[in-house]
Write a structure and sequence with these properties.
Residues 1-53 form the HTH lysR-type domain. The chain has 9 helices and 11 strands. It is of the alpha/beta class. The strands form 3 sheets. Strands 3, 4, 5, 6, 9, 10 and 11 form a 7-stranded mixed sheet that branches. The chain has a two-stranded antiparallel sheet with strand order 1-2. Helix 1 (2-10) crosses helix 2, helix 2 crosses helix 3 and helix 4 (54-78) crosses helix 5 (92-109).
């Protein structure tokens, strides 16, 4: 299951084998044996990348829980000698969906480490890392803002999203819902709309992912947000073909200081093991979300 998780995370056997300190043939054998045990194909090849099948995604959900419980139990009874304190900064979307579980497992495995979490907008989290207000920051950045010492987590595509049953706008300005001035998504959205010559009006600002989602689902406006944020009652904006393709965003871990302490290295390892599933089936408007 650990081999399957890493192959899905990295998209191939080579890097997974390196992380496991195994040969590629050994990892391939483990995957074949796992497929034989469950009786289903778990991976499919798309070009040069391996993607999970439907059964692979279903098994991955169990694998995450099994591996987390296994690793926590081993660490608990082995006893962690690590001590120290860490302040983790994270954007709202990551803090509300994944940090609680990660923090709980980490505290259990490393009782000698004091972990605090501080949530905020993307630009705020970046500023905290710059000033040392947090030790580690998990945040989305544009491609040209990724630093050589950033630790990559995953990539998600930005899209203009609307409610499936949203009313046609006619000649009215596009009602735009944004994450506020402390998130760079709004700047990207306004630039794309301006370049396309599309009139718009900012009708709501919310630093909360849940707030933006709710406003879009209610038909209050459209928003530029992660494809992975879409809910089943949302789809791509009907006017998307009139604007240039939005960029992808790269989620990274950024350290306030290097080198990382042993405690920070352990937390980074936990964070890098928490990447969400591949959104490769989120291509049709209104497609159901694949939940972590």
């Amino acid at each position: 299951m650990r081999a399957l998780k890493l192959v899905i995370e990295t998209g191939g056997v080579t890097e997974a084998a390196e992380r496991l300190s195994l040969t590629q043939s050994a990892v391939s054998w483990k995957l074949r044996r796992l497929e034989g045990r469950v009786g289903h194909s778990l991976l499919k090849r798309e070009g040069r990348v391996l993607r999970p099948t439907r059964h692979g995604r279903e098994l991955l959900e169990f694998a995450d829980r099994i591996l987390s419980a296994h690793d926590a139990a081993v660490q608990r009874f082995r006893g962690s000698a690590l001590t120290g304190s860490i302040c983790l900064g994270a954007t709202d979307d990551f803090a509300t969906t994944r940090v609680a579980g990660i923090a709980g497992r980490f505290r259990w495995a490393h009782p000698g480490i004091r972990l605090q979490v501080k949530a905020g907008s993307s630009l705020s989290v970046a500023a905290w890392a710059e000033t040392g207000e947090v030790d580690l920051a998990v945040m989305p950045v544009e491609a040209n803002q990724v630093r050589h010492d950033d630790l990559p987590l995953w990539t998600d595509q930005l899209e203009f999203i609307q409610a499936i049953d949203a009313e046609p706008l006619g000649d009215q300005p596009v009602p735009l819902v944004t994450f506020g001035e402390h998130c760079f998504y709004g700047r990207i959205a306004s630039t794309l709309l301006d370049e396309a010559g599309i009139a718009y009006e900012e009708v709501l600002q919310s630093a909360s992912t849940a707030g933006v989602r709710a406003a879009v689902s209610a038909g209050f406006g459209i928003s530029l947000m992660n494809r992975g944020f879409m809910t089943p009652d949302q789809c791509l904006w009907s006017g998307s073909e009139r604007v240039a393709t939005p960029p992808a965003v790269h989620y990274v871990v950024r350290a306030a200081r290097l080198p990382l302490t042993a405690a920070e290295q352990s937390l980074v390892a936990e964070l890098r093991g928490s990447v969400p599933p591949v959104w490769d089936e989120m291509t049709e408007p209104g497609a159901a979300m694949i939940e972590p």
